[in-house]
Amino acid sequence: MKQAVILAGGRGTRLRERIGDLPKPLVDICGVPLLERQIRLAKRHGFSEALILVSHGAARIAEFCASRGNWGVAVRCVDEGRARGTAGAVLAVLDQLADEFLVMYGDTMLDVDLTRFHSFHVRAAEAAATLFLHPNDHPQDSDLVELGEDSRIIAFHPCPHDGTRYYQNLVNAALYWVNKRTLGDWRNNGEVRDFGKDLFPAMLRGGLTLCGYRSPEYIKDVGTPQRLDRVCADFRSGRVERASLDHPQAMVFLDRDGTLNREVGHLRSADQLELLPGVERAIRRLNESEYRCCVVTNQPVIARGECSFEELRRIHGKLETLLGRDGAFLDRIYWCPHHPERGFPGERAEMKFECNCRKPRTGMIERALQEFNVARERSWLVGDGSVDIETARRAGLRSILVETGQAGLDYREWAIPDVVVPDLEDAVAFMLDRYPRLLCACTALSAGIGESAIVLIGGQARSGKSTFAAVLRDAMQAAGRRALILSLDRWLRSERERDAGVLGRYDMKALQALADRLADPSQRPCALALPGYNKLKRERAESVATLAVERPDVVLLEGAIALALRIAGGVEVHRFQVEIDEEARTQRVLNEYRLRGLTGAEALELYLARREDEFPVIEGLASGARRVELASLMEHEISCPA
């Protein structure tokens, strides 16, 4: 038997202008009283009993429940007579409580996967209570809860906070699983009135175990007209229902160093952490959207003995505190403390091993997928390093490389990002604003592309070819078709082996052989050995990756010289030339050269030389191709095909 205890004794003074004499739990939420929505939620998750603790309007609440046939649940209304506080009211009916019970506040609108919450509580068998916790956008004036890595509550931090400390952004959301056996000692304690302010801190001081269940699901109080209006708006939009972990969630995974904060090389101290410009605004935009937002970060400084667990907590506390000051928050921070290489002074031998969580392995991602019920196909990973991009590839996530930190020039891995942008703020703008529009356009374009087709995507350097290819692939995969991308920059020749002109910079013989192989149905299925190109060293590396091509796969060949390839035979061929405003393209090219270590003057000289020998050739290859103005597609409203 599952029992829900609903604290419905509030008078609703601040809502008087809206509800008059109506008891607050009966406030209307889009046509249905709040109390009814709460009991329906509990019943949906297997609760068979609801104990409603009432005072103001007790008779009206009991009559209302009876008029609904108690929704097929064993409902009991208990008049507490006088206001006792949230904990006091529950302690007063101790004899009527189940061995474990759910506490729900009568003035909160929620849609929470209570089954998942209960499973977590059951696993924490030694816990006196499990509190539902979530971050919020104003932690500086909220009562905060500090949680250890084992999900045990370490401390409560009521307002006002110590301005010299950094805090984890976790707030008590007023939803609890409680074990009755732990309450006996508090029954006659008249000083215990409130769960959050009195009972739980006293339990912690008394040595009892309290656990925290972290979830981003919807739970908000309706105690003022403004809050009520916000809840009703969220309900009408579907936001309340979609936030439940019953439904798959879209997630943005974020690397930490070089993506959120300045890269300092093995950050060891909270004093070293400095957010990059625009990070707070970017994460706040994600919070306002329906994307969940988590950090996944390798922290080998722990295994190397360069940073303690306590200091890492301070680092992450500072990160959350700085974000919170600007109304932004992270749903979770996942970190790996391991490091496989030995030989560092003071290293921790027990953490020196090959683990499953260190990126590019996907252990942290997989954990988040399970804990948040994440939909891979709607999720992204944003990072500044090649390891992040490889992690996204292995995990089946879309990837965005930001040109902060390492800017992908570390070459520890050879994965190629779907999208490259200057910084996190632009990454979020792409995900929220430009990608949906581009996906709509690509959905229409992909409808005319048949099985086994070859798609040639050409255009000037830094014109958006890889982005277009990635979104065209996504559009086809959303329709249940498999599309593969081959970046032709993998076949750039090492500098010492190049011939004159743009075509001389590529191994055109190898590329034409590749095109011939892909165009021959008898050559499929096949496994392709892929080279890689190091932009810093200007050298090609052979066989750094493999790609399996099946017979019906659509293959997208993207690169500046893609349209120079000849596709023989009867295979279906589509030719696109991606275009961009020349001023914008110039800035992107110059920035890339600067990232490679060129001075401003050197970057400009190289750009002008490339424009002289490359631009006319690429433009000439576009004859007969379908021209795609990427910026136009991403900046204008588009009606998506049904």
What is the domain total for the residues?
3
Note the total helix count.
Answer: 20
Q: What's the mean pLDDT score?
A: 93
Specify the CATH architecture of the largest domain: Alpha-Beta Complex
Name the CATH homologous superfamily of the largest domain: Spore Coat Polysaccharide Biosynthesis Protein SpsA, Chain A
Describe this structure in words.
- By secondary structure, the protein is an alpha/beta fold.
- The chain folds into three domains: 3-242, Spore Coat Polysaccharide Biosynthesis Protein SpsA, Chain A; 248-417, HAD superfamily/HAD-like (Rossmann fold, 3-Layer(aba) Sandwich); 440-587 and 614-642, P-loop containing nucleotide triphosphate hydrolases (Rossmann fold), CATH 3.40.50.
- Helix content is 33%, strand content 22%.
- The strands form seven sheets. It has a seven-stranded mixed beta sheet with strand order 5-4-1-6-11-8-12. Strands 16-15-14-17-18-19 form a six-stranded parallel beta sheet, with helices on both faces.
- A hairpin with a 4-residue loop joins strand 22 and strand 23 (539-549).
- Helix 13 packs across helix 14 and helix 17 (582-595) packs across helix 18 (600-613).
- It is elongated and about 90 Å long.
- The two termini are 46 Å apart.
- The model has no long low-confidence stretch (mean pLDDT 93).
